[in-house]
Amino acid sequence: MCIFCKIVNKEIPAKVVYEDDKVMAFHDINPQAPIHILIIPKEHIPTVNDLEENHKELIGHIFLVAKKIAKELGVDEKGYRMLVNCNSDGGQEIYHIHFHLFAGKPLGPMICK
Length: 113
What we know:
GO terms for molecular function: catalytic activity. This protein has two helices and five strands. The chain has helices spanning about 5-10, 55-70, and strands spanning about 15-20, 25, 35-40, 80-85, 100-105. A five-stranded antiparallel β-sheet has the order 1-2-3-5-4, covered by helices on one side.
């Protein structure tokens, strides 16, 4: 069982900021910004490549949850970044799809070389 599934199952503690029947959101243990929240589906979906048609509502829900969290944390107006990685060359380390919400400082444009 992956670490995120263990967090969903309450086998590993996490600093949860949001939870409903479909998703969970919690603080990253190795934050890359002053605010770094991970938003995950409770369903184990390894990568973006494993998404199917029936996941459309779930992915839309994740973005609405991100919006809600950003508002609650007071960063919705100043701005925040959402990021999802896919597979090793895309920077994915945990194979349970997850969305990063970064905020709390100016993040600037992302430059890919």
